[in-house]
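User: Can you predict the 3D structure of 4-hydroxy-3-methylbut-2-en-1-yl diphosphate synthase (flavodoxin)? Sequence below.
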Amino acid sequence: MNEIRPWRTIERRKCRQIMVGDTPVGGDAPITVQTMTNTPTEDAVATLDQIRRCEDAGADIIRVSCPTKEATDAFGKITKAARIPIVADIHFHYKRALEAADAGAACLRINPGNIGSNERVAEVVRAAKANGCAIRIGVNAGSLEKHLLEKYGEPCPEALVESALDHIKLLQDHDFHEFKVAVKASDVFLAVAAYQQLADTVDCPLHLGITEAGGLIGGTVKSSIGMGNLLWAGIGDTIRVSLSAEPEEEVRVGFEMLKALGLRTRGVRVVSCPSCARQGFDVIRTVQALEERLQHIKTPLSLSVLGCVVNGPGEARETDIGLTGGGNGKHMVYLSGVTDHTVQSADMLDHIVDLVEAKAAALEAEAEQQAVAAE
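Assistant: Sure. Here are the predicted structure tokens for 4-hydroxy-3-methylbut-2-en-1-yl diphosphate synthase (flavodoxin):
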């Protein structure tokens, strides 16, 4: 039920691959989903609790701020306990980068041009090399260098790209090449244009994001328009959806974006109708409950939930499990696109959850058998 048709295929931009810890980024690696903690890093327990929720949501990489010496002291405990690579977020103080690298950072988010002298850049590069750290250059329209704002008059794609190239040169001058780059802006048009220009200029992996995108709904829409545009064009190797929401929500939105474009498959893809007066059950509340109860499913599979028989059978033919509303509180269940049995309204929710969990377990067992046979 997850067949990819030729007209759905996205040809990704070719770039070199780097490693963030044990996670490949770029090349032919899957597009990774990132987020960032918002707890005080000095509180290692609270930060790890948040990281666990993000790991459970499927995060591939997570970023943690390191603004103080106390933060980098706690950072070592965090990197040891986390199950995914941790990026240390550094802004101006190069010593925090040195401490984070020694404390187990898989990547340093730092703009080399912002940390001072060439010797300081060299020290950070030496620490990154010694500890196997990648570096993420993070250009932001809201914090462009003064000379670029004077040159261009305002943030523009050319200014963002020039800033990125300046930072890249600083690393390459020290023979460092394990880097990825972001050119983020809150303005969708500005961000997309900057990424398009940068993609044609460099061969490193690109980290996508529409920065300060907004709340859960508005930020999801804004990010989907901007990042979706780029991903559809094959641009982007790792993404972060920047929302004023809990970090695990950023992860879920990121995966939904990639799933919609067929670039990643994780968990249940729900196809559901907006509901109308023909509905045989409360579609909105049913879908809300199913999405909540099925968050733990990691195996890719599809579920259609349609309120009536107008489009229900057609959508059910395209999904692993389908539910179509009927009369008298009795609804049709489809398995692998074929009508199979009916279920009463009172039992419907638990029944569908059971079917999805059983299907996921069967698919996992089949994958394990195939892996054993291939060895």
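The mean pLDDT is 94. The chain has two domains: 11-260, 268-374.
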